[in-house]
Amino acid sequence: GQQVMQIPQYQHVQEGEDFTTYCNSSTTLSNIQWYKQRPGGHPVFLIQLVKSGEVKKQKRLTFQFGEAKKNSSLHITATQTTDVGTYFCAGRALYSGAGSYQLTFGKGTKLSVIP
Amino acid sequence: ETGVTQSPTHLIKTRGQQVTLRCSSQSGHNTVSWYQQALGQGPQFIFQYYREEENGRGNFPPRFSGLQFPNYSSELNVNALELDDSALYLCASSLAPTSGGLQETQYFGPGTRLLVL
């Protein structure tokens, strides 16, 4: 079945440093979503990417979808302590069948920011 | 807050027991998805309900079953609990996806933390 891999598993950065997490799918995706989960919380939707090569920005966050629609990245510029949490990508396979909207999540990248 | 509520917040059960978890979706949302999130892992898709019918199922055994009611609230039932069922169970509500394969935004509830002893 479809697998979504994320690296790194953990990242510790000094406040103000940049951070990037990478997501790779074993199959071509129709779209990819990114979520943030704070410690003890639930996943919160950040963004969805649909088009090949798409780049979207949200303030200090930059999201990219690969040309082949099999990989994606999230880059945070000048991290802040409020960025702490686990970042998940989740993709829907391009051919997952009619009526099925299964999202496959990666294992996430846990970000720690040292003040 | 997303407007998605789940109950109970925490639950302790023993092996072999049965459990029912509940979810109220955000107003206007007719689709509910259930996920299992083990410690240190990403959420794993269990199944999705759209207009009271199962609309897709992940790799979970039949002892995981669900219901969606006319008001779009939902239940997740797990029979014959096993130790490995200990996890955070999340429901997420959304509108049905638009055409072209776009995935509607999912709004997660706070989850039910289940511990099986």
Task: Give an account of the 3D structure.
The complex is a heterodimer of chains A (115) and B (117). Chain A has no helices and eleven strands. Chain A has strands at 4-7, 10-14, 19-25, 29-37, 44-49, 55-58, 61-65, 71-76, 85-93, 104-105, 109-114. The mean pLDDT of chain A is 92. Chain B is an all-beta fold. Chain B has strands at 5-7, 10-13, 19-24, 31-37, 44-50, 53-57, 64-68, 74-78, 87-94, 107-108, 112-116. In chain B, the strands form two sheets. In chain B, strands 2, 4, 5, 6, 9, 10 and 11 form a seven-stranded mixed beta sheet that branches. A four-stranded antiparallel beta sheet of chain B has the order 1-3-8-7, with no helix packed on it. Chain B is globular, with a radius of gyration of 14 Å. The chains are: A mainly beta (115), B mainly beta (117). The interface between A and B is medium-sized, with 29 and 29 residues.
Summarize the structure.
Chain A has 115 residues and is mostly beta strands. Chain A contains no helices and eleven strands. Chain A is globular, with a radius of gyration of 14 Å.
* Unreliable runs of chain B: none
- Hey, roughly how much beta strand do the residues of chain A contain? over 45%
- Beta-strand content bin of chain B: over 45%
User: For the residues shown, what is the average pLDDT of chain B?
Assistant: 91
What is the CA-based Rg of chain B, rounded?
14 Å
Major beta sheet of chain B, specifics?
7 strands, mixed
- Which secondary-structure class do the elements of chain B indicate? mainly beta
Shape of chain B: globular
Helix run count of chain B: 0
CA distance, first residue to last residue of chain B: 32 Å
Helix content of chain B: under 10%
Q: Which oligomerization state do the chains in this entry correspond to?
A: heterodimer
Anisotropy-based shape of chain A: globular
> Taking Cα atoms only, what radius of gyration of chain A do you get, to the nearest Å?
14 Å
One letter per element, helices H and strands E, the order of chain A comes to EEEEEEEEEEE
Q: Most extensive interface, residues per chain?
A: A-B, 29 and 29 residues
- The SS-based structural class of chain A is mainly beta
The major sheet of chain A is characterized as: 6 strands, mixed
